[in-house]
Design goal:
Number of strands: 0
Largest sheet: none
Shape: elongated
Radius of gyration: 14 Å
Number of domains: 1
Structural class: mainly alpha
Order of helices and strands: HHH
Helix content: 55-70%
Length: about 55
């Protein structure tokens, strides 16, 4: 988050900052592939685990 979002953008206000960070966190967890997760999306990995437990 620090390098992907904060240093690449400027924010006009605290409200703008909060809104964009919230959107980025959603993108990071739902749309971005992660090499540490074998190139899967974190939410997909989480949901796979929930299905196994249920």
């Amino acid at each position: 988050l620090k390098y992907d979002e904060n240093y690449l953008n400027e924010y006009s206000s605290i409200i703008d900052l909060k809104s964009k960070v919230k959107k980025y966190i959603h993108f990071y967890n739902h749309n971005r592939f992660h090499s540490a997760l074998n190139y899967k999306k974190p939410m997909n990995v989480y949901l796979e685990g929930v299905k196994k437990v249920a």
